[in-house]
Amino acid sequence: MKQLIILLLLIIAFFIGYGQYSQYQRFNSPDVDYKTAKEIDVAYYNQEAVINYYKAIEDLNSFVKMQWTANNIDVRSPEEGTEETKLAVYTYADKVAIIKYYESKLEKSAVLKKKGLSNEEILFLENSGIDLKSHQKLIAVNKIKSMFNADKKLDYGNKSALIFEIQKQLNLKGFEIKLDGVYKLETLNAIKGFEEKNNLFVDGVLDVLTLDALFE
Fold it and tell me: Per-residue pLDDT tens for 146-172?
């Protein structure tokens, strides 16, 4: 009889303790604050995006804690499949997606700034839809084209940085010629060959159309 009483007392103590633990667990959520290991650009050109990113994190953290304390739902690893739990998990996923959207932009901007780009250049890349490699190539090509003067015809024997760049481009197009920056017969014939191949007027003279086609 004495042993039975002791057993009953132990069972009662267990349930009392478990209930207290459940209450404690419910109102004392674990560390649920969202954290990222990614480096983001807090000086991003669009500061509203930075603010929205941090707001989204606060919104997510508040939602996770509220679901834990008010509904006893851990949306990160739910144990029950009730409709309430499913709805909470879907909402949690949506809130995480918003964070990831802003995070992706800010992380990419941080990477580009490490490569030397400014906020203005990053804005241009985003608006134009081109990648960094294409952007850098475009800058280089525009510098080469800026050396071209349509009013000044290249004469045989002329030597310049522009001719050197043209020779480099002709080599990339499959014409094996010497890189010496001198406009001689070898370069002239290569230009003719390129013009013929690209359905341009074949004269070996460097004009705007030939120049554009070479750097496409």
Answer: 888 877 777 788 899 999 999 999 999
3-state helix, strand, coil in the chain (%, to 5): 65, 0, 35
156 neighbors 183 (Cβ within 8 angstroms): yes
Contact 65/29 with Cβ under 8 angstroms?
yes
**184 is written with which tokens?**
């001689």
User: Higher pLDDT residue, 33 or 113?
Assistant: 113
d(CA 159, CA 166): 12
- The answer to whether the CB of 112 falls within 8 A of the CB of 132 is yes
The tokens describing 192, both together, are 């003719």
Going by the DSSP 8-state scheme, the letter that residue 34 receives in this structure is -
Sequence-ordered list of residues with C-beta below 8 angstroms from that of 92, at least 6 positions apart, any chain? 60, 63, 64, 67, 75, 76
d(CA 98, CA 60): 10
User: What pTM, to 2 d.p., does this model score?
Assistant: 0.58
Encoding tokens for residue 123?
A: 């804005």
Mean pLDDT, residues 165-186: 93
Model pLDDT for residues 95-120, shown as the tens digit of each residue: 999 999 999 999 999 999 999 989 98
